[in-house]
Fold this protein.
Amino acid sequence: MTILLKRSKTDQFGKGVHIVIGPAGRPYCPVYAMLRYLAMIGSRNASTPLYVLAKGVPLSRAVFTSTVRLLLEKAAVPNIELYSGHSFRIGAATTAAMAGIPDSLIRSAGRWQSDVCLRYMRIPMETKSKISAQLASVSDLI
């Protein structure tokens, strides 16, 4: 699936960028979810915003963020004020790193022009605690 992002903070010249999203298998397949969403909202004009509210109003960043915070509150997640739309970029970078995806691909997929994405990655303490054991296993081979 390819999505055209007409503009973004990282698109300094306003050219737009095509984002390629591959199938991932259910239950978390973004392609399957998009196909279900498109079937639900019906046919659309190419110039119509992709995400719209019930009355056809385009989904704004403010509404998205407030909805995420409302859902987090209902799930009793602490410190919901720390979450924003940007949290999804942090989560994606962290998940990609934990899945073993190379930093260069994470940077490319996130459309980062620098290595700033490395600062976004939140590596869990359990993973960090295994580093010593991994280094020790390699030193036995030297």
